[in-house]
Amino acid sequence: MLLVVEQFLNGLQFGLLLFLLAAGLTLVFGIMDLVNLAHGSLYMMGAYFAATFAAWTGSFLAGALMALGATLVLGIVLEMSALRHLYGRDHLDHVLATFGLILFFNEAVRLIWGPAGLALPLPAWLTVPVPILPGIHYPAYRLAIIIVALLVALLLYLGVMRTRIGMLIRAGASNREMIGALGINIKLLYTLVFGLGAALAGLAGLMQAPILTVQIGMGENILILAFVIIVIGGIGSIRGAFLAAIFVGMIDTLGRAFLPNLLRQVLSGAAASTAAPALSSMLIYLLMAIVLVVRPEGLFPANRR
Amino acid sequence: MKSFTVSKAVTALMLAGLVLLPLYSQASGNIFILTLFTRIIILALAAASLNLIMGFGGMMSFGHAAYLGIGGYAVGMLAQEGVGSGWIQFPVALAASAIYALVIGALSLRTRGVYFIMITLAFAQMAYYVASGLARYGGDDGLTVYKRSDFSGLINLSNRTQFYYLCLACLLGVIFLIWRIVNSRFGLVVQGLRSNEQRMQAIGFPAKRYQLVCFVISGTMCGLAGALLANNTDFVSPAVMYWTRSGDLMVMVILGGMGTLFGPVMGAVVFLLLEEFLSQITEYWALIMGPLLLLIVLFGRGGIMGMLGRANRG
Question: What's the whole-model pTM score?
């Protein structure tokens, strides 16, 4: 029972983290029609910035806030210097150009921070276990991730659905020429959206940093998961990204936790222990294959007519 | 059709260079260059196979490295189990790649555009994790191939020069095949589908069936490259299927010129020589390579072949 609740919360936490990453990706795709492979690099930069700034200032929170600002600025600079020129080009061009950016970022990180990973230690008040149900404790930090990510998701929803900027963003997604013709500075809007996406990726990176080590290439595996999520959820749809992210986070976490035991009941011990890790890594991709066979446009396509 | 163009001349020069390379290597005693170019030729073969679906078929597969792994693992696993004959290993490698291509092609081709890019990527990652989970065959650490494929004395793969010429022959054979395919009725239908799928379907061609067959042919060709690659490095590991390798193959195709016969070969030669050259100057070669890719995408329309074509006109 304890294990089930804990793994369930872990799945939720991982799913919410994936949502932060996928939301930026799907916003940028939905609005600018840009496939950004370098999104994972922004996630990595968020983690590196946080580890560095936290070491400088000696405070986890200050480091996290500064890292958030730094990834926002980095995203804006990246958009203005390079990615802006890719709008309206073929998707294949996007894939290649941002693939080049990944190479660049990985190497730049190796040059600046060295090949060894960094650690981001947590302050004492975040390491205590918190009782959530009678007799069940859960690490405070993971709980904090869940709360922060849920808040961000709520803010994002309100921002996109209820504010003027959000209205422009939605208008830009459905017809960019028209809102340009209506006198909206679409370049600025795009830069803003890209910066927002970068900051979301940075936030995901810096929150994940204390749980995993901060290392080169940390953004790549999770980026592919984020892609799977937006494919399942329907590209360009934030609601779809949210539901798919929770779904994928749960399946991945619960699969890794319980699949070995389940398999052991069917197969012999040795066969189960070899098959389980591979099978649990494959689960998500199987899920995606099934979704694409049944609904090739994803579960919640953004511009349903 | 013009009898002489710059791109034809450069292609001919490059091919002559590739054919004569072992002589140079022998004369100068530079063995390294032969090993390097064997690898270049094998990856050029993979790039050429990708070009068949990407350049001619308009199917942007971001998971082509999976076939390199499948072909390689077919050789490695059979060698481990004591089947050393190339007459068995190579057909199995090709068949395994074809079956994989058939399955993922049938699923992936239900989607298009950016969805297709991502689903092929995800399937290749899945193959990567499966290979990592093969504890019996080395798992993450990979599998050493202790003995190269044995072609019962006809050709000795351990002899550098013979192996080089085998790879070159495979490359030229595959390019010849692609040339025949592209100019056949089948190839014209596939290219028509790239331009306008709806129209082709309205004429009465079963679009998906044509695309799937093309996808399988391409995958099988790349499986051959995988089998050769495992023999070249005497080693196969999940890393050959990693998604950055698929990205490298795409870069080679674009760099050389998508939808041209010899473009991918040119792209592979330039890309891998550049990588080799930059990594000798600095340890941080990717710092230069990354922005270079960005510039190529932004300004180098049509790749090297496109630029040569323009040089001819201007």
Answer: 0.87
Does residue A247 sit within a domain?
Answer: yes
Output phi, psi for A129, to 5 deg.
-75, 140
Closest-CA residue of chain A to B301: A93
Contact A258, A7 (CB under 8 A): yes
Structural contact between residues B243 and A228, judged by C-beta atoms closer than 8 angstroms:
no
First to last CA, chain A: 45
d(CA A209, CA A213): 6
Report yes or no on A2 lying in a domain: no
Q: What is the pLDDT of residue A302?
A: 64
Contacts for B110 with CB less than 8 Å, ≥ 6 apart: A292, A293, A296
Candidate from A89, A92, A285 with C-beta closest to B60: A92
Give the up-direction half-sphere exposure of residue B174: CA atoms within 13 A in the CB hemisphere.
30
Report the number of distinct structural domains present in chain A: 1
User: Which member of A103, A235, A288 has the closest CB to residue B122?
Assistant: A288
Residue A302 lies inside a defined structural domain of this protein: no
Residue B285, Cα to own-chain centre: how many angstroms? 23
Complex-level ipTM: 0.81
Identify the residue among B117, B208, B297, B298 best suited for mutation to test binding to A, counting A beta carbons within 10 A and taking the highest.
Answer: B297
DSSP character string of B3-56: S--HHHHHHHHHHHHHHHHHHHHHHHT-HHHHHHHHHHHHHHHHHHHHHIIIII
Confirm or reject contact between B293 and chain A (CB < 8 A). yes
Expressed as residue numbers, the domain containing A193 is 14-294
Q: Is residue A222 in a domain?
A: yes
- Kindly tell me if the per-residue pLDDT of B314 is higher than 60: no
Q: Is A25 on the interface with B (CB under 8 A)?
A: no
What is the pLDDT at residue B1?
Answer: 47
Let me know the angle formed at the C-alpha of B90 by B84 and B94, rounded to the nearest 5 degrees.
145
Q: How many whole angstroms separate alpha carbon A66 and alpha carbon A155?
A: 20
